[in-house]
TrEMBL record, chain A:
One Pfam short name: Fer2
GO terms of molecular function: 2 iron, 2 sulfur cluster binding; metal ion binding; oxidoreductase activity
Ranges of residues in domain 2Fe-2S ferredoxin-type: 1-76
Protein name according to UniProt: (2Fe-2S)-binding protein
Tagged with keyword Iron: yes
InterPro entries in UniProt: 2Fe-2S-bd, 2Fe-2S-bd_dom_sf, 2Fe-2S_ferredoxin-like_sf, 2Fe-2S_ferredoxin-type, 2Fe2S_fd_BS, Beta-grasp_dom_sf, Diverse_Oxidoreductases
Domain of life assignment: Bacteria
Organism: Vreelandella nigrificans
SUPFAM superfamilies in the cross-refs: 2Fe-2S ferredoxin-like, CO dehydrogenase ISP C-domain like
Entries under PROSITE patterns matching the protein: 2FE2S_FER_1, 2FE2S_FER_2
Swiss-Prot/TrEMBL keywords: 2Fe-2S, Iron, Iron-sulfur, Metal-binding, Oxidoreductase
UniProtKB/TrEMBL annotation, chain B:
GO molecular function: oxidoreductase activity
Domain of life: Bacteria
Keywords tagged on the record: Signal
Gene3D superfamilies to which the protein is assigned, alphabetical: Aldehyde oxidase/xanthine dehydrogenase, a/b hammerhead (3.90.1170.50), Aldehyde oxidase/xanthine dehydrogenase, molybdopterin binding domain (3.30.365.10)
Protein name listed in UniProt: Twin-arginine translocation pathway signal protein
UniProt domain Aldehyde oxidase/xanthine dehydrogenase a/b hammerhead: residue ranges: 224-313
Lineage: Bacteria, Pseudomonadati, Pseudomonadota, Gammaproteobacteria, Oceanospirillales
The keyword NAD is assigned to this record: no
Amino acid sequence: MATLTINGQVHEVNAPDQMPLLWAIRDVVQLTGTKFGCGMAQCGACTVHMDGEAVRSCVTPISAAQGREVTTIEAIGEDAVGRRVQQAWLDLGVAQCGYCQGGQIMSATALLKREAHPSDEQIVDAMNGHLCRCGTYTRIQQAIHHAADTEGEDA
Amino acid sequence: MSTLRDTLLLANVSRRHFLKGLAAGGALVVAARWSPLLADEPLYGAEAMPNGWVDDPNVFIRIDEDGIVTVVNHRAEMGQGIRTSLAMVAADELGAEWEHVRVEQAPGEEETYGNQNTDGSRSMRHWFAPMRRAAAAARTMLEQAAAQQWEVPVEECQVGVHVVMHTPSGRELGFGELAAVASQLPVPERDTLRLKPREEWRYIGQDESSRKRPFAVDGEDIVSGQAVYGADIHLDDMVYAVIARPPIYGAQLRSVNDEAARALPGVIRIIEIPTVGQPAGFEPLGGVAVIAENTWAAIQGRNALEIEWDVEAAGDNARYDSTQYREQLEEAASSPGQLVREHGDVAAAFNEADSLIEATYYMPHMAQAPIEPPVALARLVDGRAEIWAPIQHPQAAREGVAGQLGLAVEDVTVHATLLGGGFGRKSKPDYILEATYLSQALEGRPVRVQWTREDDLHHAYFHAVSVDHLEAGLDSDGKALGWLHRTLSPSIASLFAPDPMHKQDFELGMGFNTMPFNIEAIRLENPEASAHVRIGWFRAVYNLPHAFAIQSFAAELAAAAGRDHRDYLLELLGPERQIDPRNINESWNYGEDPEQYQVDIGRMRAVIETATEAAGWGRELAEGRGLGLAVHHSFVAYAAVVFDVEINSDGELTIHSADIAFDCGLQVNPERIRSQMEGSIIMGIGIALQSEITAHEGQIEQDNFHQFLLPRMGIAPDVIRVHLVNSSEDVPMGGVGEPGLPPVAPALCNAIYAATGKRIRRLPVGNQLTS
């Protein structure tokens, strides 16, 4: 049994401690925006925030999420930076199939929160752990710059 | 299009009402097309697809009284943007304002919607015309409704933007106000419809301006985590399944000890699924399923199974070793094979030649590896099967499930979710048949079968490994006098029938038969090759190895001749002309009419010229830097790619830019065509540099993305420039999703050669630049 705070809501999750946060979010809490892609932190589709930091929920046991604030893609728009990133994704038409994009947006938001105007190298460092089989990387890079440039504007 | 066929169709167009347009079936529309009267006539394009096309507005367009226009999309959405693009077509022809347009996904139901098999880059070229006619019919019905209401001649009524206007009086009525009356009217006859000329289009062909707003219909849902993919449906009482499948194609289950698995918390039941023989077709591979309360418990349960497989049942497959197999194909490539196409006398040309060049190219197996692995949810209720799944070919799923459970196809409902990538993997419904099998075993209870990444890589329908051997004879000026190409790959046909050992027409037609060079003596051969894993479609399919070999070899000839690659390539292509597929023994032609769809050398030359000019072909480059070019015709479209790369003294590659010039004829949604081209560049970089599936003793050696490598942001070009050309109604429409991909790997390898002098003949490049 674990007590998880996800998007500001407290959930009592009746599951073994070692269950990855991903499956607690998806199967138990039934928030489905966080995606399964590999199960071993290779693709980033499962990325969520834990206390504002981007983590791979597929390799994070629920025991490690106890007492932390977990944020998923469903709630990232409530954050000003998150909303700007979402808008940048729309403005630049980043998504193709869209499956990996929730995770990409979570990492991009975490990056912009710690580095308001990242360089190309910083963007690659932050995003290289994400796979997009549709191949949207150049637009993701542009969208992160675009989101940085729209800082202070109403999203 | 034959008027006879149109007449037959018209006679049966149902008069259902577009206000409630989704209620009933439209089987009559389709039934008419398969009249025996027409059986002898060769069919092409959408006509030739199972269940053909439908253009009944009642099927595709609904207008509610609040003015919202709902366009029904019946094709699978996997990132190519068809939900947006077909709705743009309908909105334009109808005169709808985009912000009042919604898109609704049709279930799998070809008897109503026509063909839904979303592969072969066919959606737009097969559905542009029917969707326009459906919308034009609806627009006409709205005008007639307004005329009735105003009691004026219909000629005085015209659709504007989401309204019908009475021009003489200046009166207007909104679509919503007219919907009820319009829905009572008969559907106008097809030959009376007026299609809007291009200058009246507001959405079709719109490019940069579409950047100004979230044009894609699913954009908001995607960025907020609300978009619904295959694993995102929850039903009460559902359970979760993960399956241990035979590790070798053809292996059978000998015994399973499930004691430890059953003892795990959350594990509900263990169910054996009969293992399939060969060929497997779309059948599930079988194995042992762990049914659990959640996905993770099911995965843990599977890990705890102790299974003995009867490996010998797999026969030769149990000894399949991809390295030995490559060597075997390379050896076989030195001997003649089945003749596919011949012009002139290659042996004589080689005798006459001043120099002979030869090279052998290799492309390995690959997995489609969509980031969403296969997944399906199924339940059985009251003798009906209901399925939610990401599937490119819902009708194949319905037919498969009907056969499996002894149901009528009409009793199998497939709700198509968004696909988290398809790339050919999700054309095959094996994972859906697993879910229905398990649901039946659980008395109809809803079951979600979740594939892990390991499952996806171990049990893909793999891209065929390919060896291509080429020889050419050049005269003293470097001109090619003769060209010999032998291609060896296992055939996809081996999935459905005893292994034919040869590529089939539809496989040879993907860039092999259609080799476009203007050379006097040509000989194309296809020696035997056997299949030892499930072989299946992968985006662009056999075009990938054919383009890699032909476009690499053309560059090798240019180098041997001491000529500029672009100039030499244009010379190989020769003058602008149409190559009739029937004259090059090409019977498949992507299913299209050879009268209409020919290989257009002028368009091929034009994309080369556009791409090379944009990339600054011929400019001075620093040491270690090079430009590489390739061109390819596939899916009745034309693409040329130029890479600008740099390789440092440590062998590290930087891709500065990619230019891709693309001609698919009329561009309906240029913005999405651009993103498809960008994606093709990235995927092609992975094919060139990284991606390889290998087998040893019949088992796939790559477990996850740490071993099956895909391109990441770090290897992406600094810039990708897409040049869309020839958006013309004067040429027949081409495909988009696939044709950008084939020239990418050879262009990149040609750039590596230009930068380093190192010729890559075996993919992926891997560490060949550092060793």
